Amino acid sequence: MQLIESIPAMKEVSHRLQSAGSLGFVPTMGYLHEGHLSLVDTSVKENPHTVASIFVNPAQFGKNEDLSTYPRDLERDLKHLQARGVDYVFYPQASDIYPEDYGTWVDVDKLGDLHCGKSRPGHFRGVTTIVLKLVNIIMPGFMYMGAKDFQQLVILQKMLQDLNLDTQIVPCPIVREDDGLAMSSRNTYLDKDERKRALCLSQALAHSQQLFKDGVRDSRQLIKAAAEIINKAGGQIDYIECVHPQSLLPVEVAEADTRMLMAVYIGRTRLIDNAPMA
Ligand code: PAF
Predict the structure, then answer these.
(1) Ligand 1 lined by 52 (C-beta under 6 Å)
(2) Distances 155 to 115, 119, 246, 250 between C-alpha atoms, Å
(3) What are the per-10-residue average pLDDT scores of the chain (278 residues)?
(4) What secondary structure letter does DSSP report for 22?
(5) From 33, 36, 49, 80, the catalytic residue
(6) Is the CB of residue 275 below 6 angstroms from any atom belonging to ligand 1?
(7) What pLDDT does residue 189 have?
(8) How far apart are CA 159 and CA 139, in angstroms?
């Protein structure tokens, strides 16, 4: 496995790998967990070569967010990536990605202003911009992304389609801890009591799915039932919505592919999770 820090060096390798068949790419912000590594496993299985990137992207953090405290451990990440068969790790400097005179940003209309976009203004502009830059540098055939960041997944699919890029996103299932908590680098912020209470997100989703199975179709009723579970656990709800899986617009009547999306504060930690109704 080779660590590549410079953009020109990464581009050179990417050009070479193009001719060697399909190239798989796993973009990350590091501090890898089994969720990330499951994306790596799928890419390694499906492509002759896999590139993973590690870049804590300052452009997707708001002023009062956790950029400076975001967990980092390059050495551990590299060990994991090597063990799982990654060929190249792209680890650029922020000053190379966003030089002082940097001035081009990518915005996906409408989708980026909903849900997480409301409480994190500018977040998705930061995500789409960095992912487009990474795709331009690495030129992968396939990009592996987890469904935990469901809104991000939909926005990035729209960006790739709107901008006629050849990279295809391969959506991968959410990886959960044994007790149901969706894996996230931010779970490390939770203390023992918060870690227990954080289960309310997956429990609320499972309860809504059960209600749907029992015949409930009214989104308001499903959301109310989910909110009750979260309130009981002392979670602070940012939003809970039942949305169409492509437009991400709220629906009144839930169908099997309706996605319940939620963001909840457990203490000071903002967690997201989602699930289809069936
Ligand atoms: O999902 C993430 O970790 C990030 O948003 C991504 C896609 C690596 C862009 O920085």
Answers:
(1) no
(2) 12, 16, 9, 16
(3) 98 91 96 98 98 98 95 98 98 98 97 97 98 98 98 98 97 98 97 98 98 98 98 98 98 98 98 98
(4) -
(5) 36
(6) no
(7) 97
(8) 15
Ligand 1, atom 5: nearest CA belongs to which residue? Answer: 127
With a CB cutoff of 8 Å and minimum separation 6, the contacts of 85 are 40, 44, 50
Ordered domains of the chain (ranges, CATH): 2-172 (3.40.50.620), 185-273 (3.30.1300.10)
**pLDDT the model gives residue 21:** 84
| CA-closest residue to ligand 1 atom 2 | 28
Token duo for residue 83: 């063990």
pTM: 0.97
What is residue 106's predicted lDDT score, i.e. its pLDDT? 98
Please identify, by atom number, the ligand 1 atom nearest to the C-alpha of residue 185.
3
Between the CA of 134 and the centroid of ligand 1 the distance, in Å, is: 11
Gap between the Cα atoms of 249 and 43, Å rounded: 31
- Span from the CA of 27 to the centroid of ligand 1 (angstroms): 6
What confidence score (pLDDT) does residue 24 get? 98
Is 29 a pocket residue for ligand 1 (Cβ < 6 Å)? yes
Whether 53 lines ligand 1, by a CB cut-off of 6 Å, is no
CA 53 to ligand 1: nearest atom: 8
Do residues 147 and 176 lie in contact, with contact meaning Cβ atoms separated by under 8 Å? no
141 φψ region: left (φ > 0), alpha (ψ -120 to 50), beta (else): alpha
Residue with tokens 């039932």: 225
**Exposure of 255 by Cβ count < 10 A (0-12 exposed, 13-18 middle, 19+ buried)?**
middle
Ligand 1 atom at minimum distance from 55 CA: 10
Q: Would you call 33 a catalytic residue per the annotation? A: no
Give the pair of three-digit tokens for residue 94: 């922020």
